[in-house]
Each structure stands twice: as C-alpha cells, then as structure tokens.
Amino acid sequence: MKFKIIIFLVFLISACTPQLTTLNKKESYSATGFAYVYNDKDFIEKIIQGKMNNEKFQISHQNLKTGTLLKISNPKNNESIILKNIKRIRYPDFYKVLITKAAAEKLDLDINLPILEIIEVKKNKSFIAEEAKMFKEEKNISSKAPVASVQISNISKKAKRKKIKKTDHVYILLGSFYSIDTAKFLKKRINKDIQDFDINKLMIQKKNNKKTLVISGPYSSINSLKNDYIKLRAFGFEDLDIFLNE
What we know:
By secondary structure, this protein is of the alpha+beta class. The protein has two domains: 30-153, Barwin-like endoglucanases (Beta Barrel), CATH 2.40.40; 167-244, Sporulation related repeat (Alpha-Beta Plaits). It has seven helices and eleven strands. Strands 2-5-1-6-3-4-7 form a seven-stranded mixed β-sheet. Strands 9-10-8-11 form a four-stranded antiparallel β-sheet. A hairpin with a 4-residue loop joins strand 3 (69-74) and strand 4 (79-84). The model is unreliable at 1-22 and 128-164 (pLDDT under 50).
C-alpha cells in the first residue's frame, strides 16, 4: 500500500484532508485489490477508455508507464503470471488494474471477488535480456497457444482438487502504524468526519510492538466494499490495499 505516511501525519495534525499523490516512482509498485476484467460493452459505453483483446493475455495499469512488467497473483490459489503493461487505459479508480478475460481465466479468478496481488518486476533483477525482448511478440500470442513471453508460476498440470466451499471475506487496510495511539486517533477521526461510515467495521490489530494495523471489514461482496472504499478515498487515503480472509 502506497500510503504517504509523512503527508498523512501532517494531515492528522492539521485536521485537514489533502489530496495525496498517486505513486512513488522511486519505489517498485505493489498493491492488493480488485481487477477489472475487460469487456467490449464497457469500452463501447466509455466506462473503459481503451480497447483490449480478450483472447490474449493483456494487462493495463493506468498510472504506470507502458512497458512496465507486472506480476499479478491470485492469493486464493497462488497462481501467478507476469505481463507487460500494454498501454495506459483509463478505468474506474476503485480497481487496481485492468486485465483481459484470458488472463483472468489463467489465474482462475473469482469474477465475483476478483482480488489480485500486483508487484512491479524490475527487468534487471528478475529477467534476463532475452526474456524481456520476448514481450515484443506478445501481440501475436493467443490464449490457447504456448506462451513464451509470459512467465507462469505454480500452474499445475494435475487434475484440479475439489474446492471446499467457504465464505470469502475481504478487508481494507487503512494504515500500519508504530504507535497504537495513532491508530486509535485515526479510528476516532474516521468516526467523526466520514458520514454514514459503520464504525463497527473498523478494527485495530496489534501485530507486534512496532506494528499496529487499522483495518475495515469484513466485506462479503464487492459492492459493499466499494461504498466504503470510495468514502475513504474521498477522506484522503490513496491506493488502499485489500486483503482476503485476514
């Protein structure tokens, strides 16, 4: 979660809600949240400001440079795939990334709760030159063909195991603090300043002596989470991370 802690401390002290910057370009990008699965109807209706090919493994992040390598993982089954950001397509801010149907199916995403972990991959650390160059051929890749330019981890060729049905719950991570007093102060501010926010959803979780989390949840549907997410963004948070079954 790219939460600007210095700006946020100023925000707490001054009792205001500044507009935070989006990404720290000096650090590798990482986030957890929902994927927007592309469809032509949303493109036609201009909900998505760009076209993709649903038969290919494609990904778009609207705030990262074209060509950025991104590893996306399904935390429910640990399936992962690395793709190049094809272009910066505008999509609703609630979502972390835009992917094609082929990529979603490869990761076996739950369309009702399409949660992903996203990590920027540095070429000089994670790829040799030849592997990086192979991404130039990705426009010719069919989702049904062997994939040379896409690195896939933990894809089992064995028969799928029987899935145990369970209710998935997701949580929003508002921040991680050294002081529990700061966490309590944040909870109090949200209760006071965000209208119609259910304070019973806010939890303070002390991990250790140096780490205290403020979490909102649980949510069992993407719609209920989206409402609170939008309220928190309007309050001053940015790039809020989302976790599954904390």
